[in-house]
Amino acid sequence: MSTTTQAPSCSGQTATHGECPGRALPLARDAGGAVKAEPFKVACSSCNLRELCLPVGLSRNDLEQLDSLVATRRTVSRGDTLFRTGDAFQSLYAVRTGFFKTCVSAEDGRDQVTGFQMAGELLGLDGISNDRHSCDAVALEDSQVCVIPYSQLEELSREFTDLQHQFHKIMSREIVRDHGVMLLLGSMRAEERLAAFLLNLTQRLQARGFSASSLVLRMTREEIGSYLGLKLETVSRTFSKFQEEGLLEVKQRQIRIVDQAGLQALVNSSSC
C-alpha cells in the first residue's frame, strides 16, 4: 500500500541528510535519457529509515558490513517499472523515497494490483522462489531504491545471524500481510475493506513521521479497487458515503480522516 501526506518538515524522524522520504530526489539519467544506478551516498548506518528497513536491531559493526553490500541506489520515474514479470531475480530493493505498486496480469489482460510499498519497505521478495520475478513493480511517483544484491545478502546473512533473523522477520511480515489481504477480500463488505485500507495506510505513514490523519493518495481509485477486489464505482461511492457520514474529508486525492474511531468501528464489525 502506498501513499504520502502533506509534506512534513524534515526535522522529523524520517529526515535523512536534508531529504524527506516522501520526496523523490532529482533523477540521474545517461546520455540517452535512461534511468541509471547511482553510487550510494547515504550509508545504512546513518540512514534514519534503518528502523523501518532491513537493518533493524543490527549492531554498529553489522551495519557497517551491510554498508559495503548496499553499494548503489536506483532512481525510477513515475510510471516506470523497477522490474517486470519474468525478469531474472538478482537483487532486493529497499524503498528509500517514493511509492510503488506491485501487480500481476490476469488471463484476460487486466492488471491486478497485489500491493503498495512505501519508504522503508522491501521489493523483490517474489523472485526468490524460482529466480524470476512474478510481478511488475511500478513507481507511483518519482522514487529511489537501495539495491541489495541477493547472493551477497545470503553470504552476509550466514556470517551475521542477526541479519539473517531480521530477513526472516521481513519474510514473515509479508506472509502476515498476505493473510490480511485474504481477510479483506474474503469476509469484509466494501465499506469495511476501504476503512481497513485507509487505517493501514495512516498507521504505516505515522510510523514514518507523517500525519496520522491527513494524506494524499498516490494511487488511483481504480488501483485501490483492484487491490481491494472492488469496482471503481464502488470505491468512489464508498468514499462519498464516508464523507457524507463525517468519517472523511475528501478533495480528489487529498484525504483527511475526521473520525478514526468510526472507521475502526466499521472494521471491527466484520469480526462480529
From TrEMBL:
UniProt keyword annotations, A-Z: DNA-binding, Transcription, Transcription regulation
GO molecular function per UniProt: DNA binding; DNA-binding transcription factor activity
Domain Cyclic nucleotide-binding positions: 54-124
InterPro entries linked to this entry: cNMP-bd_dom, cNMP-bd_dom_sf, Env_Response_Regulators, HTH_CRP, RmlC-like_jellyroll, WH-like_DNA-bd_sf, WH_DNA-bd_sf
Gene Ontology terms: cellular component: cytosol
Residue span, HTH crp-type domain: 188-261
Pfam name, any one: cNMP_binding
Coiled-coil annotated residue ranges, if any: none
Organism this protein belongs to: Roseateles asaccharophilus
Name of the protein described by the UniProt record: CRP/FNR family transcriptional regulator
Signal peptide extent: none
This protein's record includes keyword Transcription: yes
